[in-house]
Design goal:
This protein is α/β, with parallel strands linked by helices. The protein folds into three domains: 82 residues, no CATH class; 59 residues, no CATH class; 177 residues, Nucleotidyltransferase, domain 5 (2-Layer Sandwich), CATH 3.30.420.10. It is built from 15 helices and seven strands. The strands form two sheets. The protein has a five-stranded mixed sheet, sandwiched between helices.
């Protein structure tokens, strides 16, 4: 039996050391067989035989004849190279179709790794990985064509310290966000919105996008307006009221939270229906320089910037393109909604109140 060639206790589960490889080289050049080397080193004879194959190099003798000999340096180099490949296998590595799926969803469809991981689970794809693994692969550059620069949110995110603000008393006519009911703050009730404008460059047309985001479902409404005046904002809101009907609008838009931009300061006109002269909604105003108080709207505007980059003239975008952007956002699965789309939740709520 081969075990008889070993002297002393055999070292199991241990790699050959550099010193042992030097002994193997010396004994092999002295013509000693593998079993003698195994006995001296306390190794299995097959360990020695495999090492002799791994470390073979071409050597010229004194008569310039080529022959294969064992080199301890070569054996150590092969061992070190193999060691660099250790660790868990890349789950996407052998599945080129899955790699292409990930690249297409992130680059082609502008989806986040979180949503891509969800889509893989939802579709029951074999070899699906979690969000953390996808981010790790991207950080390590293991997915061709995808980098941190490809990830919109990661590229745009900045750590900004919050400022300590002094609150100035505003005119009594405007209701502060501090008076907004707690169920609105907690997103427990449907029908409460945040409003804002997405503007173009300072030089160019004055066209802008009016955006409204429902706080509970994150559903987005976008309307292109010719400028950021109070009149244009009021016409857009009136068009939305006309689309849903005055009665449904009152149930659908129970409150709207705005910033302190001049375009939103005509409280009476904003709150009063153009059709019945009844109050159609209630306005609340966030504190100055406190964009986080309208976080849903700020996030929606940031997503819009994936398609309408900052500095682009909004007048150049057709109504069809703007509608497609809104549809993309409303049909995008969101982790905060348990990967349900805003459109699905919005339509369910709309049916309940219709």
């Amino acid at each position: 039996m081969e075990q008889g060639y070993c002297s002393g206790e055999r070292r199991k589960g241990k790699y050959l050391t550099k010193e042992e490889r030097v002994v193997i080289e010396r004994m092999s050049r002295g013509g000693r067989p593998p079993r003698d080397m195994a006995e001296v080193l306390g190794r299995h004879v097959r360990t020695i035989e495999r090492e002799l194959v791994r470390g073979r190099v071409k050597h010229l003798d004194s008569e310039l004849r080529e022959k294969m000999v064992y080199s301890s340096d070569r054996g150590q180099d092969v061992h070190d190279l193999n060691a660099t490949a250790k660790g868990p296998d890349l789950k996407l590595g052998a599945n080129r179709g899955l790699v292409e799926f990930v690249r297409n969803r992130i680059v082609g469809h502008r989806e986040s790794p979180d949503v891509v991981a969800f889509r893989m689970r939802e579709a029951g794809i074999n070899g699906a990985v979690c969000t953390k693994s996808l981010y790790n692969y991207i950080d390590q550059g293991l997915i061709d064509g995808v980098s941190n620069e490809t990830l919109w949110e990661k590229r745009k995110r900045r750590n900004r310290p919050r400022r300590t603000l002094r609150r100035r008393k505003r005119p009594e006519r405007r209701q502060s966000i501090e008076k907004r009911p707690e169920q609105v703050n907690q997103r427990q009730e449907f029908g409460h919105w945040e409003i804002d404008l997405v503007v173009g460059p300072t030089a160019g047309s004055n066209a802008a996008l009016l955006t409204l985001v429902e706080r509970k479902t994150r559903h987005v409404i976008c309307r292109k307006i010719p400028d950021k005046s109070q009149a244009s904002v009021l016409r857009a809101i009136r068009a939305i009221e006309s689309q849903f009907g005055a009665k449904l609008f009152r149930s659908l838009f129970k409150s709207i939270t705005a910033d302190n931009g001049s375009e939103f300061l005509d409280v009476d006109s904003m709150q009063t229906s153009a059709f019945s002269r009844r109050q159609r909604t209630t306005l609340f105003y966030a504190h100055p320089y406190a964009s986080w108080e309208r976080g849903s709207n700020e996030n929606a505007n940031r997503i819009i910037r994936r398609f309408i980059a900052k500095g682009r003239d909004i007048a150049h975008f057709t109504l069809k393109v703007i509608q497609q952007v809104a549809e993309w956002i409303n049909n995008y699965p969101r982790r905060i909604l348990n990967f349900i789309t805003p459109n699905t939740l919005f339509m369910n709520e709309l049916k309940a109140i219709s």
